[in-house]
Structures are given as C-alpha cells and as structure tokens.
C-alpha cells in the first residue's frame, strides 16, 4: 500500500469500516495477532497448484474486541470472508483447466462492520500496488453463521412438518386397523389349526393341506376413501413396497442392475467433479488423472446419462405396446401424460422447495454459500423446472441454473411428450413407424453435426474448448440428445414383437457381445489423445459428437435384448440380482438428491483434503450410501404417497366385482 494512501481513500464510504481500518493499529496486540493468524497465507506448494487458502474460519469468528481492551474504537467481532481471484488461463497447463474459471481463493478476517464491497475495494487497492501484478479480486463472500430463518424457510418447515404428521397418522392407522388385525388373525388361525389337528387328527378325514380354521377368522377391514388417503402416506406399507424384491411377470429384470450401476457411475463422476475444489492439489491431481488412460471411464461418465435415456425409451415403448395390444390400440392419453407428470413432479418440486428454502441454513464454513448454491436463481426461475423446459435456459446468459443437473429430467419429459408421434404409427405399421423414427434420428444427427461444427466444439466437456457453447447449445438440448432414446424405443418394439423370445446362434451371440463391448470401450477410452494434446479436427469431433451417444445407446440395448431373450448368460444373472430391485426403485430420488449431499459435504469443510484415488473412494462410497438413504426417505415422504393418491383419485388398481 502507498504510504501516502489513507484507508478512507479506498473504502466504499462505510463509516464503521473506515474507522476500523484507519485505527487498526490501535487495536490490542492480542486481537491483531488473532486477526492476522486467522487470515490465509500462501502454502508451501503454491507453485504446484494449491490455490485455495482458507485460513482459520473458527479462529476468526472467535475474535471479540470490546471496549475494555480497545477504548479507542467501538467493539467488533471477527467476520470471515472468502475472496476469489481469477487465474489467467495462459498460466494453467491443461486444456480443461484453461477452459475453466480457476480462482485463487483466500480467506481474510475483517471486522464485522465491513461489508463485502468494502473488503473487495480494500483488497484490490492493496493488490494493485504490487508491481507487475494483473490479478485482482473478483468476488468476496462474507459469512453470517447466525442467520435467522426467513418467511420462505418457515413456510417450508411447516409444509414438511405437515407431511411428517400425515405420515405418522397414516402409519398408525395402517398398523392399528390393517396390519395388526391381519397379523393377529393369521396367528390365531395358525395356532388353532395346529391345536385342532393335534387333538383330532385321528377323527378328521379332511385333506392334509386344508386348514381346519380359515385365515379370515374376522371380517377383513376395508378402508374408505379417507382411509385410503391416509394409507398412501403409511411408512409401513410404502417401505415394504420399496424394499420388496418382487416384480410383475414379464419384467425386464436386467434393467434394475443397469439402472443402479449407471446411477453409481453418475455419483462417482460427480464425486470427482463436485469435490475436486476441496483438494489442496486440485490442479496437479487433475493433470495426473488426465494422463492415465484408465481414467477414461470417469472422464466419459457423461454417457451414463445416455444409458438412462436409452432405458426410458425402451421401457416406454415395450410397456405401452403391450398395453395397446390388450386394448386394441386404444390408450387414455390424458392418463398417459398425467401419470408421467404426477409420477415425477411432486417429489421433484418438493425436493427443490426444501433445497432452495432450507439449504442455506443447515451449515456453515469458509466455503459455505450463504445463499445456497443456486438459490438466488431458483427463486426467480423455478417455474422453468416445473414446466420441464429448464434445458432451454442457457448457462452463458444467466450464469446459473436451478438444480442444474435436472436438465436430464427436462429432456426425458420432452422425449416422452413427443413419443406418441412414433409409438402410434409404429403400432399400426412398422414400416411407417420405422420411417418416422429414422427421420427423427437423422434430424438429430444433422442438427448435432451442424451445431458442433458451427461452434468448433470439442468432443467432450472435459476436452477443453468453449464450455458454455458445448453445454448450452449441445449437451442439454433435446434435439442433440434424443439418439439413445430412439434406439431404446426401437429395441423396446423388437422385444414386444418377439415377446422376448429370440434364440441366437452361440457364435453370432459371442460376436455381437465382442462388437458391443469393443464399441463401448472405444467410446469410453477413445478420447485419451484428444485430452492429452492431440486434438481431433473439427470435422472428426463433429462426427464423434453426432454418433457416439447413439452408439452407446445401441450397446446398452444389446445388453438388455440379450438378457431378456436368454442370450445374456452370467451378465443376465448379475444384472438380474434381486437386490438391485429396491435400489432401482430409488434411482429417481437418488438422482435428485445426490448433488445436494455433495454440495453440503464440500461446503461445510473447514480444511482442504489431499486428493488421491483412495481419498476419492472414501468420498464416493459414503456419497452413494447417503444419497440412497436420503432417497429412501424422500421416496417415503414425497414419491410413494403421490403414487398412492393417484390410485385413490382415479381408483386405479381396484378390483371390479
């Protein structure tokens, strides 16, 4: 700082902060020492990429200067602020790093009378005095660990409390009026049958397997409409349904394993992506991982989402075709759309509501976002998510998205909405339906190729290039992502037409398995040279962006087709393991919640971690377990009750006399 400069020359006019700055040296040595000690200092491995210097958050907040110690100025408390200083891209030796916004983040301890703007101006004034320095602070966030609930948070707490209350009432009602009497009747019937058989076995000539006293010793209780509504919230009944390993006849059992493995893959990829800012070796760890070809499956975990698109298209077509066959091609299209919207939206919106309203209050720390991760944007734009059009909100224009990972749900809903345009002609004429499907696929390929070439896109998010163009114009747009969905629809139709019966010559079967596995490996690991300094041409990258997701969907479809038709061998045995059934049911809620779990963990940390493969595994496994545990709770509270209410409202599933 220039010796002639006064603090009041560069502060933003805040009198309180001006006074603290101008009289800083009058504060007691004890307080000054804690202020300086709590502030960040450059670490030993700064030149190797340690760019997050947190200082001591708790020591800063513990500072209390009072009138007894410092009579010259008013009392103050320590306030922790995290400063972000952008690093010029030219100094980062990696395609991904150079394409991303890396910040030197350092913690400072200031008097609580200083605002974020005061702190920003003060720091930039100091930084501007450093010779040859061009790096200035771009952001400052000061922590407020004692924030009070606002009206929105209070309302959400009341709503969640009402849900919990109804769940308790519904569970008690279920146990007292249904489960306990049923259990008691069955127990009594068993005991009486045993006793009668023991006493009169010489005199009774009835069939051995005929119970002497029926199971229904009392008239079975039948709940009314209000009782059925309460039962929709029963933790006992809903929990039993979620955890059951039973499946309806004709189910494609391998889908359960594929769904769970794909969700685990998504969580693993997000563990690296979301938690890497916690690493004190973020840059060197990232560069090291990029140089390992075995890391390709993590870098290209993006195609795991294409697996879900494939499953959606396949299951929709397979199931709706069977339903249309039973009803001579007639479908209640209102229920077709309503059921989908009702199945997805209530848990989605309730999770969003809790996330936006309560997340800012449930933690604290040097990295904590006091307004939540995306809360400010969600407050103004949540209706895009409600309408499933949030994938048309460009990140480059807004700087944020509400629950950004839910772009997938928007795409999936949009594919579902237009699916009858393919399903109807396909049901009545496979030739016309096939042509329509091919036109959709060809249109998607053309659009993707043109967009990729126009914006000079790289073949992956992790290959560098313009992140915003890739994400906004290609990655989240339905006309670029529908390929796997269409391949899934085609496979679902084939399974329907063959009734899952197709014997394949063992050598042909083996050959197709080898081709599918080889193609999947090429897709996963084929970008190694691209990421390590040998980029594709724009045309080759456009071709890759155009077809690789569709080809990945084709590989997944082969696995499902082979398993469903008896050509899957041990692969089918593994994927059809019954333990995958309940885990598969929780996948939707796990997808909604798992980033929130990671955000919370990363933002409450007060010290950095040193990343290694072992560290990531220790983070991934708890992330997955906690995500599924939270998904189970969310499914009990939000998802299962809504499905039960739908049956009550439309009297679905009731047996007609």
Automatic annotation (TrEMBL):
It holds the Pfam family NRF. GO terms for molecular function: acyltransferase activity, transferring groups other than amino-acyl groups. The chain crosses the membrane at residues 155-178, 295-320, 341-363, 405-428, 435-455, 475-496, 508-528, 551-571, 583-602, 614-638. Keywords: Membrane, Transmembrane, Transmembrane helix. Residues 14-144 form the Nose resistant-to-fluoxetine protein N-terminal domain. This is Nose resistant-to-fluoxetine protein N-terminal domain-containing protein.
């Amino acid at each position: 700082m220039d010796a002639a400069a006064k603090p009041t020359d560069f502060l933003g006019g805040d009198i309180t902060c001006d006074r603290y700055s101008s009289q800083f040296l009058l504060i007691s040595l004890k307080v000054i020492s804690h202020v300086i000690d709590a502030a960040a200092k450059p670490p030993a491995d700064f030149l190797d990429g340690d760019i997050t210097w947190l200082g001591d958050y708790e020591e800063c907040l513990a500072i209390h200067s009072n009138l007894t110690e410092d009579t010259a100025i008013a009392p103050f408390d320590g306030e922790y602020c995290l400063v972000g200083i952008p690093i010029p891209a030219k100094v980062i030796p990696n395609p991904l790093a150079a394409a991303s916004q890396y910040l030197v983040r350092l913690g400072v301890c200031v008097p609580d009378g200083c605002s974020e703007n005061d702190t920003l101006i003060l720091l930039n004034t100091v930084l501007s005095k450093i010779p040859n320095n061009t790096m200035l602070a771009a952001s400052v966030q000061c922590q407020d660990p004692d924030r009070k609930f606002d009206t929105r948070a209070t309302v959400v707490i009341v709503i969640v409390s009402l849900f919990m209350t109804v769940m308790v009432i519904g569970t008690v009602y279920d146990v007292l009026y249904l489960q306990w009497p049923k259990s008691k009747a069955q127990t009594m019937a068993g005991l009486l049958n045993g006793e009668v058989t023991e006493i009169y076995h010489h005199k009774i000539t009835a069939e051995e397997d005929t119970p002497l006293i029926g199971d229904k010793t009392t008239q079975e209780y039948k709940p009314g409409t209000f009782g059925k509504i309460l039962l929709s919230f029963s933790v006992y009944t809903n929990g039993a349904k979620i955890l059951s390993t039973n499946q309806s006849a004709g189910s494609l059992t391998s889908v359960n394993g594929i769904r769970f493995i794909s969700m685990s893959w998504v969580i693993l990829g997000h563990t690296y992506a979301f938690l890497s800012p916690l690493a004190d070796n973020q840059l060197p760890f990232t560069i090291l991982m990029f140089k390992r070809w075995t890391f390709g499956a993590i870098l290209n975990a993006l195609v795991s989402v294409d697996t879900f698109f494939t499953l959606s298209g396949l299951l929709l077509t397979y199931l709706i075709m069977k339903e249309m066959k039973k009803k001579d091609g007639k479908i209640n299209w209102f229920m077709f759309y309503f059921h989908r919207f009702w199945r997805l939206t209530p848990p989605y919106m309730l999770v969003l509501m809790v996330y936006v309203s309560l997340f800012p209050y449930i933690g604290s720390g040097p990295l904590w976002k006091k307004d939540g991760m995306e809360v400010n944007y969600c407050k103004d734009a949540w209706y895009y998510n409600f309408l499933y059009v949030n994938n048309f909100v460009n990140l480059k224009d807004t700087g944020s998205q509400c629950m950004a990972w839910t772009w997938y749900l928007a795409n999936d809903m949009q594919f579902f909405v237009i699916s009858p345009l393919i399903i109807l002609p396909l049901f009545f004429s496979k030739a016309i339906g096939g042509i329509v499907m091919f036109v959709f696929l060809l249109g998607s390929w053309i659009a993707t190729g043109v967009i990729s070439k126009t914006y000079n896109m790289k073949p992956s998010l992790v290959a560098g290039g313009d992140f915003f163009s890739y994400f906004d114009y290609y990655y989240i747009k339905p006309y670029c992502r529908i390929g796997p969905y269409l391949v899934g629809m085609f496979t679902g139709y084939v399974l329907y037409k063959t009734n899952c019966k197709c014997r394949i010559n063992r050598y042909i079967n083996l050959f197709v398995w080898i081709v599918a596995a080889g193609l999947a490996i090429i897709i996963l690991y084929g970008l190694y040279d691209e990421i390590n300094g040998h980029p594709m041409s724009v045309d080759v990258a456009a071709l890759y962006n155009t077809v690789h997701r569709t080809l990945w969907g084709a590989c997944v479809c082969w696995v499902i087709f082979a398993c469903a038709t008896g050509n899957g061998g041990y692969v089918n045995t593994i994927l059809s393991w019954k333990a995958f059934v309940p885990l598969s049911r929780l996948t939707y809620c796990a997808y909604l919640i798992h980033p929130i779990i990671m955000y919370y963990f990363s933002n409450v940390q007060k010290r950095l971690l040193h990343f290694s493969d072992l560290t990531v595994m220790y983070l991934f496994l708890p992330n997955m377990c906690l995500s599924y545990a939270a998904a189970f709770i969310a499914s009990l509270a939000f998802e299962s009750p809504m499905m039960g209410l739908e049956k009550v409202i439309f009297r679905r599933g009731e047996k007609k006399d």
